[in-house]
Records
---
Amino acid sequence: MSDTHILLVISEAETRLFLERTVLSPAGYFVSSTADWNTAESILQRNPPDMVVLSEQIDGRSCLEKARLLFQRFPFTPVCLLVDRDSEITAIQAVRLGFYDCWQVPLKSAEILQTVERALAQRQRWLEQVRLKTRQGTSSLEERMNALEAIQRIGRKVTSMLDLDSILSAVVDAAVEITNAEEGSLLLVDEMTGEFYMRAASQNFQQEYISSFRLPIHDPLLAEVLKTGKPVVVDGKTPQKIKTSYLVHTLIYAPLIVQERVIGVLEVDHRQSGKSFSEQHIMLMSALADYSAIAIENARLYARTESERKKLESILTGIEEAVIVVDEDRRLALINRKAREAFGIPAEASVYGRRAREVIQHPDLLDILFDSNPTIPTRAELTLDDGRVLNAQITPLRGIGLVISMQDITYLKELDRIKSDFVHTVSHDLRSPLTAILGYVELIDRVGPVNDQQREFIHRVQVSVQNITALINDLLDLGRIEAGFDTRKEVVQLSTIAQYAIDGFKNRLVEKSLELQVDIPDDLPKILGNPVRLRQMLNNLIGNAHKYTPEGGCVSVKAHAEGGQVILQVSDNGPGIPPADQPYIFDKFYRASNVPADTPGTGLGLAIVKSIVENHLGRVWVDSTLGKGTTFTIVLPAIDSAF
Ligand code: ATP
Ligand code: MG
């Protein structure tokens, strides 16, 4: 008992010493005693006492004010007041003021010791209570923290996992854990049968029980949840028959609500004990039920999207075209069987969502994917490692990305090559007899007189043979340029070549009353090219403008330099080219649908132009509006930028 500390602040020495030496110390208490407040204060700070005894007067003044401060500072320390026999303060007043007891001089040892014991026991009880309360507070706080953590955990699961079974099992486990229930389950409405079935359950349920569990929808409690969309709580002492096969004492049913419809309930119960559930439990169950509803809805949406995707994929897998879809960040969204085969991507490799660059190695395909940002559909040819050639149609789709569909055109390419070879051989072999025909026709009037009609016939033969020769020359040229035989190039000034070409057309333009506009600066940057071919290119373009533009129209030839390139444009205000024909006019033998049948031509001119331009590392395209006119634009690299 020596660690029980009693502080005596008593001005009267005799009483103080009596209490200390005769009563308290012998009883085993540790006593500090003083007559003044200053010393008392330092003792209070140094070693707070378990009990205090104050005399009514200290330092010549009433102790009441100081006592009040003491009650506030040490609310669990009993303070006794020592009063004289003639004091005005009664024992009742003292207790009302907050003192534990009031002792009157002369003091009786036995009474004092009894009071001290009682006071200390009281103090002990107060402290116990406080400890208990604190412990309760802490554990309920801990419980709450655990509950919140469990909810947070489930929240994370719901957003990060798509496996519905694990999510729902985790939800039921958390519900049981948070509510300290004996068991829990998640029941869903079976739309087909109108019954509740068990979708997930706590560990204590047998698998067969879960799978065979069925509860009619009109079960009174479930029906109430379905009707009100609010949690239902059973909190009775007598076991209630809730489920068909067992009794429960207490339970919570929290509704799973999707689009204002109850699709199931999350349930926890006590079967053995009659432990009740708190308001907080109901609230947490509702939160968990909401999570389950979200998870179920997510899974349903995912399943639907996935089945749509699978359907689309099997369609795309079945078709003969290779198809690749990338999103706007160039991540693979779809790649079908043919495309995997073509680009050597193993069927089992999971590629969706990965960057195209990580999956695809083919350099030309990567160029298509990354180097261009097309806004309109474009075309390109891709040669695969095994020599096959694919024709790629690249279609940008807003909000989706790029769709690349590819057809194998190896066979067509081969046909094209055979055809070119054939045309080349035949044209070559035709040229000699044609030269012979022309030669002999020219000789006819030298060997004897011819009449006018004969002369006319001879002229027609000559024109026809010239036409055939021109055609054959075109074909041979094309063959040569395409075969890459045309490699001779020199530094040339396009303005000079253009001028020659224009001069060659001047008379014909005047004859057809076509106005000619020329805007070609002399100081165009030089280009590296074949002057004969460049002239041929201009002749074809100006020739077309002349041929297709009706009398009185206008033809213009312009050039300028821009960004290390020379840009040449040949325009007219003729009939224009129908949009449907425009993609094909550079193909061999193609003529637009609006060309009158009697307009001479074979559809080779622009094919030659395109071959020449490409042979010079340039680009050519057409802009044309029906009834308004046509502009051909050619871009050729100027000498500095090309080399
Ligand atoms: P050729 O082989 O004699 O040049 P062509 O002129 O018909 O015959 P291309 O020069 O290749 O062949 O032109 C292809 C087609 O493009 C033409 O048939 C015509 O329909 C269209 N075309 C070309 N240039 C023009 C133009 N300036 N105005 C309208 N249509 C044009
Ligand atoms: Mg032409």
---
Amino acid sequence: MKALKELGQNFLIDPSIASAIADAGEIIPGESVWEIGPGKGILTTQIIQRGARLMAFELDRRLEDPLKTLFGDQLNLLRADVLRVDWNELLAQEPEHIKLIANIPYQITSPLLSRLETHHTSFSRIVLMLQKEVAERLTASVGTKAYGLMTLRLQLLFEIRIALQVPREMFDPVPGVDSAVIVMSPRIDPPRLQNPAVFHQLIHHAFMHRRKTFRNNLMQMLSKLEIAALEKHSKLDLTRRGETFSEAEFIRLCDIIDALRHRP
Ligand code: SAM
């Protein structure tokens, strides 16, 4: 069976890595797990062995029969594009919290992360194999090159760590990039935002042109008067670059903008 590049088909070949990914999921027997793209079933086997009630989304119809033969009714297989199914409807049929464990096709990374942001309260743990560079962005610290919009958006909701690095030779066919497995757990005490829309607008502008100062980027969003007021009330130096601002600083700025806008 020819691997389809357009479906991101780079199949994991080392069962010990599949086992480590499933271990990172800390599966409790009987709990609900979703997998995206079971492929030939290397990770599926490990998830089922740990006693999960598994639902998997697989877009490639050629894999349907082999997966059914391998797992029978131990696997609830949906032959569907995970980005086109109705997540609200499917999650409504699940217990309050489920887990997601997957070696995903890398071309769906961005839209999938957006879905996970939208539905973050439904997941008690997410374990994903991603392109190494994306894993580094998701786990980046303030002030580093990898720190950016994706870091802030996802770290606002999840504690994220890299569980293991996976070299490209562990896949067939060998992809052009290395990979890493991340574990995302809901933040125990997430910050409360006065106005989430302003926070997202602010961080979007902060990283719009990385070479520009935050102040220059902000000109797209705020008037000169508003920027002056923001500088005065926050006591922060807005001529710094966006990547030097911590989450707490962005939240402070966001709350000030919100207050200024609602000033009588
Ligand atoms: N889990 C297997 C493994 O570890 O070897 C396969 C991983 S492979 C990187 C990605 C899998 O996702 C492929 O089987 C592919 O057919 C499937 N896939 C690609 N796009 C998909 C989509 N939008 N929805 C569901 N499955 C998809």
---
Amino acid sequence: MPRFNLSWLYICIAMTFIYLWITSEDSAVDRQLTYTEFKTLINKGYASKVVAFNDNTVDVYIKPEHVKEVFKDDYLKVGRSPSMNVKVGSIESLDKFLEEAQKEGHFTGEISYEQKSDMFGTIFWNIAPIIFFVGIWLFIMRRMSGGGAGGANPFTVGKSKAQVYDKDDQANRITFKDVAGQEGAKQEVQEIVEFLKQPQKYTELGGKIPKGALLVGPPGTGKTLLAKAVAGEANVPFFSMSGSDFVEMFVGVGASRVRDLFRQAKEKAPCIIFIDEIDAVGRARSKSPSMGGNDERESTLNQLLTEMDGFGTNSGVIILAATNRADILDKALLRAGRFDRQIHVDLPDLNERKAVFEVHLKPLKLDDTVDPDLLARQTPGFSGADIANVCNEAALIAARHKKNAVGKQDFLDAVDRIIGGLEKKTKVMTAHEKRTIAIHEAGHATLSWFLEHANPLIKVTIVPRGRALGAAWYLPEERQITTKEQMLDEMCATLGGRAAEELFTGHISTGAMNDLERVTKQSYGMIAYAGMSDKLPNLCYYNNEEYSFSKPYSDRTAELIDEEVKRMINKQYERAKTLLAEHKEGHNQLAQLLVEREVIFAEDVERIFGKRPWTSRSEEIMNKEEETKALASNDEETETPLLENKEA
Ligand code: ADP
């Protein structure tokens, strides 16, 4: 049901007027004649035209010069076509009478016979188009304001749709305690909290506090959470809005929403405005307007820039914005005095993941097999949101199995599910296909075992999941920079599937398509962007302009890049084949084991090939951590007796 609001009232009033206008001619003056009066009218020669209808009624049209006389005082209300209506006995008698009148020269006008159309139809066809257009208009307006502050009200389209979290809403209050890890980012925003709590401490010294801070980082790393925590810690209202909420089909709506947002915020100052995905409006304005610049987005951005300049630093409104693409933002947005502070919120590392797990494990009912430390190790590259998802998914899996508490295996299943999609045990495969997939996956596993820089293997499976037919799971190292050797080793391991197929089945298949795509992209990246090829060393052709149809290099260089890519991939492919040929025996055993068991783990691979010749960096880190932990526990042991002695 559409909610009642004032606009419906306006529409009702308008409809009433329209109705009155259409029916007014009949209601204003009494136009009914008796047959006698009708005869007198005709005989006096007042009629200009007679229209007879099939239901024995007749309209008599009055000559303009006699209107006043016929309609008496009401003659001003008679409307555009002054006519009168009379009921006759039969059309034949009317004919006779009119013929006589014509003969005697009383009536000279024309006579016509018509079908009477019903009143309802006339009104309907008069109003229908109006209703139709009003309907369309309402529909469009409603779509425009879609679910925003005004709901279905078309008159609030320019109002901001910000969600407001009040400071008194203690139940949903988020504090820094809810944000695990992210110590660096927390420290940076701490200052903002301090300012919101005691602005005079800063303003007394003449200092200015940043008006805005930009939280930059991959999706799901807790940017929104951090912004909410700032509001929660400072205990101020929090306006949350997504960048795309500003953008609308019509030019000017976004700008008016920005104005409205800031007006609301100023009323509630001190407060925080949070704009998520600011790149939706803050994208660099196009340099050549002829290239189809986005007018609406640009006018919205201009308004945002103006508003940010428009209030003083001490007005108490602080803007936090989040994006994962700081590189495409307009320079004007990043200049000092606007979002002059960029806070990087990165994917959590091992310890941070453990902390995030601890936050999200709290509400779950766990059994004692669950160890956050192990879970954190199993989830490299996961964002905070992924981890929250794992915890929820694990609970769902446990519930599906009708368990009383969530266990370790539920979590591991949840991780698998999130990485690879749902297991599809029902997918029909021939024995031959299964064997080919096993050979392919065993190829990856074998190579990753013998390549120094390849990521350590966790498990290999040939159970189809999501869109993949089989998968090898690795524990990627969390490193900040990657060397050429590491990338080449990874490439070689990725090509291992196709190489194994060629070597051991004699055919190549489409199963390697995904691998090939990754390898090709990676090698283009290495050569064109990272300057890692012999023939094109130290060159980066990266170009982040929005509309760039020309490449920043010559055709000859393009050819050279293509050649280098081919050479690099071929070299790694040959290397993969050589390595596989060397370890043919082991590979075969591995493939056989896979066909039998469908899932094998690093321990099985170790049993076949012996211990991995290389220790990975993460293992090193792990060992180091364990050493320090052991040391720390030693310290504790020596300390406790001392304390006891003191007390004694
Ligand atoms: P984004 O960076 O995309 O704004 P959000 O802040 O919306 O990510 O995070 C989504 C969800 O992920 C949060 O609601 C929270 O449950 C979880 N999350 C992300 N990072 C963390 C973290 N550091 N600590 C606790 N939970 C987190």
---
Amino acid sequence: MKRLLQKQVVLIFISFATFLPAVSYSQSPYVPETDTNVLKKLENWQDLKFGLLMHWGPYSEWGIVESWSICPEEYPWCKRVMGSDPDNYNTYLKEYENLKLTFNPVKFNPDKWAEAAKEAGMKYVIFTTKHHDGFCMFDTKYTDYKVTDKACPFSKNPKANITKEIFKSFRNKGFWVGAYFSKPDWHSPYYWSPEFPPKDRNVNYDPEKNPALWKKFVDYTHNQVLELVGGEYGKVDILWFDGGWVQKKSKEYQKRYYAEQVDKNPGGYVYTREVNQDIKMDELVSKVREKQPGIIVVDRAVYGKNQNYLTPENKVPPKALPYPWESCIISGGGWSYTPGAKYKSGHDAIQMLVDIVAKGGNLLLNIGPSPTGEWDKGAYDLLKEYAAWMKVNSEAIYGTRALAPFKEGNICMTGKKDGSAYYFYYMAKKGENVIPPEITINSFKPGKGAKVTLLGTGKELNWEKSGKKGFKVHIPDEIRNNPPAKYVWVLKLTP
Ligand code: GLC
């Protein structure tokens, strides 16, 4: 009984330590969901940990940044370098749009992608059904700027409805599927009206002065999203809306936005042309959830309840965040296909996954398919690194939750959410191939009967108390010299 109690006390302590500090949501960027179906799904989504993002469209033919070169803003990613006369905007735009006439990814084989992603341990996929340029990678009936239009050579291919094929292949392999959907649409005459030249990424007219035109755009957007969730594409788990500047903006919002920009970029250029672009997201989300109850909606960078999780972009937050989140990160090159892309090393990529998981997040790793419908060898090689590591260590990834203090020196930590196991990840330095003889964790106190193993060896290891609330594990030489995996070695503690 005494032992049991002791165990319980330890468990209470540990599970208390597992939970992140309560936050006051009035100060948090996150507004929690109340729909219980969504909450349940969000909880399960947090168990998946590792997903695949793909940016693909006719822009891939030029090997340029997705969409942005047709946006008249002066950023490096908007620079026009292709076509016959990149200095002439109208010529450029025409040629960019004409990429539809040559888009023909005859090697498109989503089963192969799904297989490689599955082996790597990925559990969900998010695909660009429509990026900001407005080109639809699905068979929408609301525009002919789409892959299935007869003027696009790929329309004759049996796999022409690319979104549908990707969803089908990945779903068949047990993946959750998600649709990336850009709210801004730089092809739609209801967003960039031909009456005016486009000025920047925003709608090129004032929606408040032209409510009928704006309503056409709202309807267009809602109709397309409802096509994607309406049944033809099967069960969709996540709707990932990009283009956060398309949102309802009050005067108060504009003031806050301005202050934030000044804060982020003191003395620098502040982007101020903020137009109210009320896309009626609440209405859209309720229509979507009538079709697909519980679907996760991520209205990126838009404060409010339609952003079920937050999406730090191309970065890992410095510490654990007290709400659901996912870092979307480029694996090599840019978001879209980049000729000659250099991919992350196995060391960096695997340690990044562990770092994110230890902070309670998910990793959404991006790969950009080529114009012929292939992935670079570099992408496959990287996924093989994940596959080898996950084969040994995946139990320390799925279904875990952040465990304070998340990291101690080069050791990350998590626990299974039911408290049945705790994991301590030794992040090896580059070139470090031998496990140290002792590994000490100072911030976790195991109960008396706790068992410690190193994943991939199955052997119980000796451990002893260390300091006031720590423990030290002894690693025998035969394990030290033959580590079961590369880059990160995982101690498992069973209380
Ligand atoms: C950035 C890019 C956009 C891309 C997104 C993915 O916002 O500008 O093109 O789709 O990242 O997270």
